[in-house]
Specification:
Layout lengths: L6 H18 L1 H27 L4 E8 L3 H4 L11 E8 L7 E3 L2 E7 L6 H6 L1 H7 L4 E8 L2 E7 L29 E5 L4 E3 L8 E4 L6 H12 L5 E6 L13 E5 L2 H25 L16 E6 L2 H4 L4 H20 L5 E7 L8 H9 L2 E4 L5 H8 L4 H8 L8 E5 L5 E6 L4 H10 L7 H6 L12 H4 L1
Helix pairs in contact: 1-2, 6-13, 7-9, 9-10, 11-12
The protein binds adenosine-5'-triphosphate (ATP).
The site of adenosine-5'-triphosphate (ATP) has 14 residues, from helix 6 and strand 16.
Length: about 450
């Protein structure tokens, strides 16, 4: 007969319960079992960790001790008296760690002379010291910085993006040009905010997830009153599936050049309208007079810059100049670029380097060559480069991106199959403005002086 009260059986039952709890409800297991121990340990070791990571500062303090030799243990001064003014290492004040999904958050008070970037620079050191996957700066306000410790990669499993089921359900006015395309490593939504960062570069090796991001963008933008324009230099194989929601699609270099000229003409007309109203950009225009925003999706940017002979060189120069003009002026006039490609290196010509300087939004998926990573992220932070170079091939869709706060983040797009994106494009086909509507939108609505010859033209 088994004695159910036997201590060994009790221990076994507790162990099995813990294992099952951890497996089936990892979030509550983390918050109630693992986190309290971790939080105590973080507080207990903070002085050593802060000192090891270079976050402490020397401060002079009055120090009283009954055992003078003890003060020497700070490694600063040898004192003979019991009451002494000594230099000691001061650690930044650490708030109470708070559990979050996949980790914890802690707010620190910055010591005088410190800035949040000092913490961003030592994130990798902190992650090793705390024995966790990663540490990121997730917020700051005057005198405070909040760090998030990530205990396991939250990007390993990201829920697929679900296209809105009902037409017109898909967006709110606040979401205009701010589609959610995935999740950030911190667990927050990855919003590709075209209003804040007007142009984006989407780089990555083959099979790294570039097209998936375009699909997620199509699903996010399809319900919105925006014009989507496609440049598909892969002969249309990537974007033609979404033709129902595209205002126009160019598939050859000549077509691209014509379309770029048309976009520049539209931009010129919008410029004139803004001037007539005395405003700086289309977002300051009255709602009725605001032109339709245009999002230009370019697939395989390198194809636009490759030259085989002299005749093509002229075409490429004109294309590069047109893209650069849109990148420079497009934000104010509601024309946004999303440039995708495998190679976005300076070997494609000086046009690419100049273009990059105008593109604030960066998405760097797994890349084959360091130069594309440097080209995409190089002016962000050396740590961003390291993070991009270490994206594993088995995690397509993972990328290093610029966040709305100007910092870099690891993120992963929500999986969107071509079929789902095609379906979304079909559902919202009736939202698609024609090219004539795009060109004429916003012009002539009670425009002061609309009858002037230059505008009428
Ligand atoms: N966020 C994601 N989650 C899960 N799977 C993804 C994700 N992104 C991409 N994939 C998968 O990875 C594979 C490659 O993705 P995708 O076609 O987007 O890559 P790509 O960079 O556009 O490749 P190529 O340059 O060859 O067209 C696809 O099978 C896709 O289903």
């Amino acid at each position: 007969m088994i004695d159910l009260g036997h201590p060994l059986l009790k221990v076994l039952a507790i162990l099995i319960t813990l294992i099952l709890w951890r497996r089936w409800a990892p979030a509550s297991y983390w918050a109630l079992i693992v986190f309290p121990r971790k939080a105590l340990w973080l507080r207990w070791t903070w002085r050593h960790v802060a000192s090891g990571c270079g976050l402490t500062k020397k401060r002079h303090r009055w120090w009283f001790t009954t055992v003078p030799g003890l003060v020497a243990s700070t490694g600063v001064v040898q004192v003979k008296r019991r009451f002494q003014r000594v230099a000691v290492d001061t650690k930044p004040w650490m708030g109470l760690p708070r559990p979050v999904r996949h980790g914890f958050r802690i707010t620190f008070h910055l010591l005088d002379g410190q800035v949040p970037d000092d913490y961003a620079k030592v994130c990798e050191r902190l992650a090793h010291a705390w024995r966790i996957e990663a540490v990121r700066v997730v917020g700051s306000r005057p005198g405070r910085v909040t760090l998030q410790g990530i205990t396991r990669d939250p990007l390993a499993h990201v829920a697929p993006a679900v296209p809105p089921a009902e037409p017109r359900d898909g967006w709110r006015a606040d979401d205009l040009l701010r589609p959610v395309v995935g999740v950030l490593e911190t667990g927050a939504a990855w919003r590709m905010d075209l209003r804040l960062i007007p142009h984006w570069m989407n780089a990555g090796a083959t099979q790294s997830g570039k097209s998936n991001l375009i699909n997620a963008l199509i699903v996010g933008l399809a319900p919105q009153p925006v014009a989507l324009v496609g440049f598909d230099l892969k002969g249309g194989v990537e974007l033609s599936a979404y033709a129902a929601r595209l205002t126009t699609l160019a598939t050859t270099r000549a077509e691209c050049l014509d379309l770029l000229s048309d976009l520049i003409a539209v931009m010129g007309a919008r410029m004139l309208a803004c001037r007539r109203y005395g405003v700086r950009d289309i977002w300051q225009l009255p709602d009725a007079a605001r032109p339709i925003p245009v999002v230009v999706l370019v697939d395989e940017l390198a194809e636009l810059f490759l030259t085989a002979d002299k005749a093509e060189k002229d075409q490429v120069t004109r294309t590069a100049t047109a893209l650069l003009r849109i990148a420079q002026l497009g934000r104010a006039f509601g024309i946004h670029l999303v440039l995708s490609g495998q190679r976005i290196g300076s070997d494609l010509g000086p046009g690419v380097t100049a273009l990059r300087a105008q593109i604030g939004g960066r998405v760097c998926h797994r890349v084959n060559d360091p130069e594309t990573a440097v080209m995409t992220l190089g002016d962000l932070d050396p740590d961003a480069l390291v993070a991009a170079r270490s994206i594993a091939p088995e995690l397509p869709g993972v990328a290093v991106i610029t966040g709305s706060d100007g910092r870099w983040y690891r993120a992963r797009s929500g999986y969107v199959s071509t079929t789902a994106a095609e379906q979304a494009a079909g559902t919202y086909a009736d939202v698609t403005p024609s090219w004539n509507q795009v060109a004429a939108s916003g012009l002539g609505h009670e425009l002061p002086g609309a009858d002037t010859p230059e505008l009428a033209a």
